[in-house]
Prior knowledge:
The chain has 263 residues and is α/β, with parallel strands linked by helices.
Amino acid sequence: MSKTKVIAFANNKGGSGKSTTAANVAYSMAASGLRVLLIDGDMQLNLSLSYFSEDTVLEYAKNGKNLYTAIKEGRDLSDYILHTAYENLDLVPSSTLMSSIEFELFTKWQREFILKKSLAPTVARGTYDYILIDSPPTLGCWVMNILCACDYVLVPIEASPWGLFGFSNLFEFLEQVRGISPQLSLLGILLTKVDERKRYFRQTIEELRDLDGIRLFQNYIRIDSSIEQSQDRSQPVAAYKKASRSAMEYELLAKEIVTYVSR
């Protein structure tokens, strides 16, 4: 039985494409036959809304069948897993109450490892090949929890003039996390919302390539209206429009991730 790989999608800057990337990479992995669990760690619920209708997501947010309840009560996360409409692909939904998760963690013993403990039984069973966790755009105790529960972190960066804003803060934070959770590795930097005609796209690539020890994914995600249209229907883009450019890009990205992690 192969070990479950746990990957966080993190960036302290909002709008970088964390939720969209996690949702669509997970679908591409599952479509290839891999077993995948998604965990929505953000109060904005975007990852949950990528697979379930707004009414359904809000119902789970209210009835306790969500990540917030599991963390607050120190429960086994496997009790909060939902099956999506797609084979090999499950999800733990979030709640708007995640806005108070920092307060809930403050008084807990070894508070940086609460999520890791809740997730441990699921990882130990080896039910999934990959667990992908979406994180909020912050650098607090909850994001540290997410990173401490992971083997890898993938950082999506928007290819825009402000895409690299706060980048150094994120990497200082990652170094702090490695101090208490040394198994965490940077999987790589992914460029999102790319417009190849824009000068700042080339500038962003050049700046990232100049950084020592930072891996830049070969594949990147271009701007594509199919992504927004699929989100409006609570579907991954490849399920909504298989022939779209972005569907192909996420499939190639998923393959690149699997190849790198499986080395």
